[in-house]
Amino acid sequence: MNAYITAAVRTAAGRRNGRLSGWHPADLAAEVLDALVERTGIDPAAVDDVLLGCVSQAGEQSTNVARNAVLASRLLPESVPGTSIDRQCGSSQQALQFAAQAVMAGTQDVVIAAGVESMSRVPMFTPSELPRRNGMGFYMSPRIQARYPGVEFSQFVGAEMIARRYGLSKDQLDAYALESHRRARAATEAGLFAPEILPVAAWKAGEEAGAALHTVDEGIRFDATLEGIAGVKLLQEGGRLSAATASQIADGAAGVMVVSEKALQTFGLKPLARIHHLSVLGHDPVVMLEAPIPATQAALKKAGLRIEDIDAFEVNEAFASVPLAWLQATGADPARLNVHGGAIALGHPLGASGAKLMTTLLNVLNRRKGRYGLQTMCEGGGMANVTIVEALH
Question: Has 54 been annotated as catalytic?
Answer without folding.
Answer: no
